Model the fold of this input.
Amino acid sequence: MSSSQLGFNTLAVHAGAAPDPTTGARTTPIYQTASFVFNDVEHAASLFGLQAAGNIYTRLTNPTNAVLEERVAALEGGTAALSVASGHAAQFLAFHSLLQPGDEFIASRKLYGGSINQFGNSFKSFGWKVVWADSDAPESFEKAITPKTKAIFVESIANPGGVITDLKAISEIAQRHKLPFIVDNTLATPYLVRPFEHGADIIVHSATKFLGGHGNSLGGIIVDGGTFQWTGDSRYPQLSQPKAEYNGLVFAETFGNVAFALACRALGLRDLGPALSPFNAFQILTGIETLPLRMQRHSDNALATAEFLAKHPKIEWVSYPGLEGDKYHALAKQYCPKGAGAVFTIGLKGGYDAGVKLVSNLKLFSHLANIGDTRSLIIHPASTTHKQLSPEQLREAGAGPEVVRLSIGIEDVADLIADLDQALNS
Ligand SMILES: *Cc1c(COP(=O)(O)O)cnc(C)c1O
Done:
């Protein structure tokens, strides 16, 4: 059966995998090897010249990682994928295939804090300039476009949670200006939102979060939608111009609708090097088998917790798009009808001190800087990740002194609510 006939739950368990041809092992083995033996000299030459598919060295490809790549491509409905060492590595390699020194891209201001740093600080040393726009006002992306703009970047469900991006509205702007539209689908996963169905061209993931889902392995994925026409487009020389080291090969012409994923691998990963360990690929692959079950439970638990907190006398506000009356509720119904994910923020009436007290008094929730674990997690940004900022800067970052971010796990929701209640009242 071809992948396109199978349902999401089946793909989550089977896509890309088959019993090991040598040993019969039913789960995908961890191919813990740096390199692979060539059949003969001609075989080696064809692999190095990209004329044949096969394994050379684990920085480029690895059979365990290949199963993970095929599985995430199938779940997202893309043509190909590339697994890398972290979500940040995925973003880095995606932009490396698109941008030249002096180029610009437009990104939503509502992003994971680490992405704001990566785009705004480190990318500067490559001559790549980020221009910020407001995902609540899609027209702000169109206004920011200049002749140097080469891509648009947003998160589907955006950090620090509680924001749903109008993907269709922004993708129409990208299409009008022939710009690739990149969506970070980390918080949603393809179970909740399928960005390619709403006009995305490229998807990136931190697989560290819900895809792996158990808080035990870092990883990142780039998924190629196969939709963008790179051929002959001189704005994207990595894809449209001959590559001398591959005998004048032009990625867009030779590899068609998988050219972007291949360029990220054979140019970006080859030269920049953030390869995913096969062990981590195995852990993430195992996590993905239960992705549909976990994401539904995460979302159901988050909604019940948000409803409880919205009525709690110690809580000023709850920002969760699953709640009726929330600013993003209509967009949530449009883009993620099965649930609005696990991550959201609350505001405490008692301000900074109440935030410190809450994270200190919780017993089941872990106080740490991560999301997308089976376990429930909490963080008070003002006393941790954002401690160096002034009260004004805190507010601009959406991390005022009263703000607490939760990532709701898959425990019994009654236990989570009881833990929050005792910590709020103590
Ligand atoms: C964590 C995260 C990243 C970065 O991923 P790492 O695996 O930590 O490098 C990028 N985007 C989002 C939305 C994230 O939550």
Observations:
- Residues 69 and 409 are 26 Å apart (CA to CA).
- The chain has a mean pLDDT of 95.
- Residues 7-287 form a domain with the Aspartate Aminotransferase; domain 2 fold (CATH 3.40.640.10).
